[in-house]
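DM from R.C. (forwarded with permission)

"hey, sorry to bug you on a friday — could you get me a structure for this? deadline for the figure draft is monday and I only need the backbone to look sensible"
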Amino acid sequence: MTGPPGAAPPAPLRVLVADDHPPTRALAKEALEGHGFLVVAQAGDATEAVTAARREQPDICLIDIRMPGGGIRATAEIVSALPDTTVVMYTVSRSDADLFDALRAGASGYLLKDTDPARLPLALLGVLRGEAALPRTLVARLIEEFRQRERRKRLPLIG
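My reply, with the result:
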């Protein structure tokens, strides 16, 4: 990300990392800051995440679904309060219900924690460029859910 000669370098992307597991937060922070991101806040529960997001107004929030208070609730509140902030879920959950709830709440991506931490910065940059950040296995489930809904719409009503 370079600009014209003599231009100021771009400001680092500001990130909030919310997870109730401190080692996970530390690993995400290390991976992101090693690639030019600036972690402006960390939170261990949903309330802290929403409060920190409102205060810091980060470019992107990386949020665990299963943290105390609920990552889905935090996502919905952050997206509502800060429409210019992008939220990406960061979770161990491979549940269809969690994926669909996260997307309905306004998440722009859904990353599994078993993803190589070195890929985390690239995934977040992709989301900010409008790319999908979803594991391939969950993309297949999303497509199947869409197909099933379309099939149900086309079924004739029996009356």
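R.C.: lifesaver. The CA atoms of residues 26 and 72 lie 22 Å apart.
me: no worries. The chain has a mean pLDDT of 88.
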